[in-house]
Design goal:
2 copies of one chain form a homodimer. Chain A is built from 21 helices and 12 strands. The first copy, chain A, is an alpha+beta fold. In chain A, a hairpin with a 5-residue loop joins strand 4 and strand 5. In chain A, helix 16 packs parallel to helix 20. The longest helix of chain A is centred in the middle third of the chain and has 37 residues. The radius of gyration of chain A is 24 Å and the shape is globular. In chain A, about 60% of the residues are buried. Chains A, B: This is Acyl-CoA dehydrogenase. Chains A, B: Belongs to the acyl-CoA dehydrogenase family. Chains A, B: Keywords: FAD, Flavoprotein, Oxidoreductase.
Chain lengths: ~600, ~600
């Protein structure tokens, strides 16, 4: 059993939970239908199983190496990426006039989930290329798109996003890389970048680095940052590969997990300056970068969810197969041992993983559908999707990172000692997933974004939009007698979260911004739990309806039980968090550094 | 800064919190005093810094290798172990008449913590030898002690504990290794053992494996298990090393962490049988093994706590040094960046780690003191210590494993991307610590032990003894006005835990044992949180008194703030757990395997 993901779970999300077929009737997506989607998913499943998963362990044990001249990566990675490109998947979500397939981002999300689960290290290269491509599609000039984006969509060029510097990771306004204008309209870049994934290897004809830098004389801080295309090789007028640009690999980072995705320290302008081309207007770089941040952060949450989901399937399989001990009622040591799935605590660990992994996955898919509506829906749908994405994005990035990691931790526990060895992949998933709370904005930054920016935004409109959606689900669940307790539970949780938010807002004026934000991370967890409870109840309602229709009973019962688990075992945790938050507790803030 | 552990924290635990000097007035320990202890700790600190810590990263990157003939381990490990032995530390807690120093186990615990924090992989070899030695000291014959235990205490022989088999890890009653009696009173063992740490290497003259096996014809299950000494090399009458015994290394396990401690699959009796010597009476092996289980499980908790504590110190140091961003009130991007410790969320992450790491460490040290009282106290003290250890041992094993790991996870987060690289040790601590929920009885087994065995034991006497101790602390805290809220909080938590336990007990008759134990792991977490809140309040009371005396203000304030953090941010989580437990929720039990 490959145990990458379960196709029926993905189909449930796409077609039952999120009605991809309805989405595909929007004019923007009208060229494809379910038969096309299913054929693509067939191909994805096959490539993931045959080309991605088989070398995942080898890649982890043989991470990219740099000998001072070039980077060596095991050849299976390029073979897998070639298969991805040949299947046309690099262009899945790009517009047709740019050479893409113009498919919904929701479908792209299912594709990404599959490859992340099969081999996260290898999937990094295409994920980064798509993210960089999205940025160019949105903000580059037509000539730039023709020269750089089209070969990316064709899979000949790969892309990177180069924001961080050794002294400035989270504090992007403090970057020092400078871009000096030249008379021909190009720039020369000088500086160092850190943590740049996919920035040096020999697997693509070129690498297009999207680099944040400061043009001398611009405003200080985040308002003086511009975005540049800095290719590894210059591109000639006719599109052929030109000279090597003055961007050099200074060294590789050696990580705990996600080892297959090469992670680089880059020097720009060691010689006469790295040639760069300004994207859009000067000093708008951060704004451009952030225009794609929703999708990038959904992507992080999705990776976390995918790693959790595949870990869960591996643990489930092991628990059905491995025998150990007997049921509690059976005191006779001479009866055969039972599969460990029959032990109550193992079942609890499996249901907990399922609730986390499938809850996280559903949340990310839901956000991807919102991104489609924001892009291609009618104006009312766009407005609503924008508001929902505003408030949900920090949660979509963080909740799967937190609870997906927990799921991977539990998967190891189901395997016992075996799970702690490198003979099984669950320890690798755990190491891989630890990254997701760090990159693309740390957990702490997501908390500040949620409570400091998104909650007060537009007089609270995004949060109101979310509450209204959640209340609609409460209403729908009330109509199902078996779900009445969960309808009540969700309503109480929504009210508690809303009261807490209001109480914090009103105290903030008196106590100040620092006290208001002191427990922002806990607010992020709390609201995340309410949101995932809601996502579970929506899924359970769909499962209930499907069940009434007679199909897929085990799948539907599983969704409903995972939902019940979440409401019984997880959601009640918010009460203690809300009490702390409403008190505006400043114990941490009040502790002097020297007392730590 | 080595940042292994802080000597002042250890001194606070030993002398202020647990009054080692009072303990040392017991006749059994009367040969030593504080000056002796401090000299030993000086030596421990020096060896840990100079011999253990420097090769920890190298050992992790170069784990033991087996070429089919012998095991290769980097030479620094043996050099470190030699220094440990030369300092006489192998015999620290053994009785003088066996060649030991007869020091309190509490001091031994401080020593172990230091080496575990400095280099857990290397410290494994001596930890296992001491554990095996304790078992021999308790149950072996005088001749066996002279032949096997004395050279262990001298550091010439190392020891192992060989319980698990490939098909039976947790289910020890199902082991198949058989021991056939021979006319000379010895046995020949045939079978396979798995997960045996330290069982093959060239760093000691001999390795004494303590092996569980079944004598043919004995009772089935756990009542038919006997304990054998199976040395790697037979020992001649004169104590010199004889022939190689028929115990062979079949292979090594390759782990996610704790890579320095070689972990073996062993074959016994591939040729004519491995020579073994029965310890004590036949069929009493598991009982003997369990007589040492308290200390072994304290040792696991202690390792988890030590890894958490050293991770915390590394994170604290980094947070004071690394600059990034500005205070929230400072909107001017041209002011200098501040050390990240000034950010509220970083402070929260540090205080959370401190509360977990130092709470876990204090709990383990407290349990070690109980072990001393059980061994050497007067009959009343012995009885009380026995009861307290009965109820606390599963918590001492599990709580640090759970929350120590969480602390290591947060330490990585404080470092950000840097923490995810192998350039810093925090990712190693995290990988190492993941083991502690698995070995010496998994988390699930600790939950069953606590709720299924220890809570009902002797009509509830152990739990009553614990409650009575905790109430004494409530009483003491009430006398300190600044602690009144915490006294109240602990009392409420004790009452809630007690009511929940009673309610579960009364429902168990009706609902059955399987429902009673279905959420045993959650009960373990819940009672663990109450216990650690109590341990923190006891520490805070001591710190309060010390502060009144004028000394060590930063240390004392830190303990009090960590205690406050625990009461505000952590303890309230038990309410939701108690509600679930009291309901005897069976959602997990009710979920069919095919719906997962």
């Amino acid at each position: 059993m490959p145990n990458i993901l379960r196709r029926e779970d993905i189909a449930f999300l796409l077609y039952d939970f999120l009605d991809l077929e309805e989405l595909s009737r929007l004019p923007h997506f009208a060229d494809a239908d379910r038969s096309v989607y299913d054929a693509i998913l067939d191909s994805v499943e096959k490539i993931a199983e045959e080309r991605y998963q088989p070398h995942a362990q080898k890649l982890d044990a043989n991470e990219p190496e740099f000998d001072g001249e070039r980077v060596y990566i095991i050849p299976e990675v390029k073979e897998a990426l070639d298969a991805f490109v040949e299947a046309g998947l690099m262009g899945a979500s790009f517009d047709a006039d740019q050479g893409g397939l113009q498919l919904p981002y929701l479908l792209q999300t299912a594709i990404s989930a599959w490859f992340s689960a099969a081999n996260w290290g290898t999937s990094g290269y295409t994920g980064l290329t798509v993210a960089a491509g999205n940025l160019l599609a949105e903000h580059a000039s037509d000539a730039q798109k023709e020269r750089y984006l089209r070969p990316m969509i064709e899979g000949r060029y790969f892309g990177t996003m180069a924001l961080s510097e050794p002294h400035a990771g989270s504090s992007v306004g403090d970057i020092r890389t400078r871009a000096e204008p030249r008379d021909d309209g190009s720039y020369r870049l000088f500086g160092n970048k850190m943590w740049i994934s996919g920035a040096d290897h020999e697997m693509s004809e070129n690498i297009i680095n999207l680099v944040l830098a400061k043009i001398p004389g611009g405003p200080p801080g985040v308002r003086g940052i511009s975005l540049f295309i800095v290719p590894r090789y210059l591109v000639n007028e006719d599109g052929s590969r030109g000279d090597r640009n003055d961007v050099r690999l200074a060294g590789l980072n050696h990580k705990m997990g996600c080892r297959g995705t090469v992670n680089c320290v880059l020097n720009f302008g060691d010689r006469d300056g790295a040639v760069g081309y300004l994207v859009g207007a000067p000093n708008c770089g951060l704004q451009y970068m952030f225009s794609m941040m929703n999708e990038m952060r959904i992507g992080v949450g999705l990776s976390a969810a995918a790693l959790a989901a595949t870990g869960y399937l591996h643990a489930l399989d092991y628990a059905k197969d491995r025998t150990q001990g007997r049921r509690l009622a059976d005191r006779d040591p001479q009866t055969p041992m039972v599969p460990i799935i029959e032990h109550a605590d193992v079942k609890r660990m499996l249901l907990q993983q399922k609730a986390y992994a499938e809850g996280a996955m559903a949340l990310c898919f839901y956000a991807a559908r919102l991104a489609d509506e924001k892009r291609a829906g009618d104006p009312t749908a766009q407005e609503k999707a924008t508001a929902l994405l505003d408030i949900l994005t920090p949660i979509v990035k963080s909740w799967p990172s937190e609870f997906g990691l927990r799921a991977n931790e539990i998967a190891i526990q189901v395997f016992g000692g075996a799970g702690y060895t490198r003979d099984y992949p669950v320890e690798r998933f755990y190491r891989d997933n630890r990254l997701n709370h760090i990159h693309e904005g740390t957990r702490g930054i997501q908390g500040l974004d949620l409570l400091g920016r998104k909650v007060p935004m537009n007089g609270g409109a995004p949060l109101r939009a979310l509450v209204s959606e959640m209340q609609a689900t409460v209403h729908a669940a009330r109509a199902v007698p078996a779900f009445a307790d969960m309808a009540e539970g969700l309503e109480a949780a929504i009210n508690r979260a809303t009261e807490t938010t209001l109480s914090m807002g009103s105290k903030a004026e008196q106590l100040g911004q620092e006290a208001y934000l002191a427990n922002a991370t806990i607010y992020l967890d709390m609201l995340g739990h309410v949101v995932v409870a809601w996502i579970w109840l929506r899924q359970a309602l769909v499962a209930h309806e499907k069940r009434a229709g007679g199909a897929d009973d085990a799948l539907c019962v599983g969704k409903i039980m995972a939902c019940r688990y979440f409401f019984r075992y997880e959601l009640p945790a918010i009460e203690a968090q809300c009490a702390l938050l409403a008190d505006m507790d400043t114990t941490c803030l009040d502790t002097a550094a020297e007392a730590l």
